[in-house]
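pipeline stage [seq->struct] | target=Protein NRT1/ PTR FAMILY 7.3 isoform X1 | organism=Gossypium hirsutum | residues=332
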Amino acid sequence: MCCLCSACILLAFVWVVSVPSNGEGIYEVERKQGKNNGVRRILHTNGFKYLDRASIITLVDMVKPANPWHLCTITQVEVKSILKLLPIWFCTVLSSVVFIQMLSLFAEQGAAMNTTTISNFHIPPASMFAFDIISTSTFILLYDKLIVPLYIKVTKREPKPPSELQRIGIGIAMAMASMIIAAIVEQQRLKHAGSKNTRGLSIFWQIPQYVLVGVSEAFVYVAQMEFFATQTPDGLKSLGIGLSMSSSAMVSYICSIILTTVMAITSTNGEAGWVPPDLNDGHLDRYFFLLAALTAINLVLFVICAKRYSPTSFENRAENMEMGTQEQANEA
């Protein structure tokens, strides 16, 4: 069923991006026709130069009316800006590997811990996810209202707010830290499980890793959506937002592949492996350290891609409106 749904989504995506838009969306129109449609033209860039051939005017185009299937405008060619986003998108996919652990291994880790509190109240391991929601919501609400003003007051200068790519990098670094903390907590849990202390380690030891993941999500997902929305052409905003959301959708498959591969390697010779059904027989801490290492590699790759990325340049909207007003005056 999952494969069928994925195939239908892929087919719908291919159909949407391949069907002509009848002069709307990415197609550039004359200023006289499109001065009020709010669509900005994209300035020419030197990347992917082989795609520029589609906008070269030939003798045939000069004699006959330009065929939109043979001759593209600069804005149409500059949709190649989508291609520049793919390395950044790939890095955000890998960074989401950490976030999916809350829904799976964090809950299993909590189930193996002491979930009984005062008056023998039992805490469901999955309810610890509330700390992630609270930390994410709190950070988003306080970032502009409290954190940035407090930073200005402490440093006594007007700081340059971090860009979307910088915020994504900070979020990936915090995700790596959360995996390291989760691994340390698991090491302590295994020590208590092997001792005479039958009650084990309290589940509240998981709070720091949930909080860090929540703040990391606030950095990555918000900045990621802003980045893809601002760096895509006006007619392809939905595609940019779709790219940002697809990273979190694909990560479940990637996590399954990683976990299956790790278990296949570590469960040889009759060993239980790193993530067995009974976590006391395994080494979940090593798996968390592995994810932290993969996240560190992803962070390095992201920094390289972010430094090489050149932002998409759009026509100045204010200048476009001024020219449109001038044209209206000339027509009058």
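stage status: PASS
auto-comment: The first helix runs from residue 2 to 18. Residues 19-37, 318-332 have pLDDT under 50 and may be disordered.
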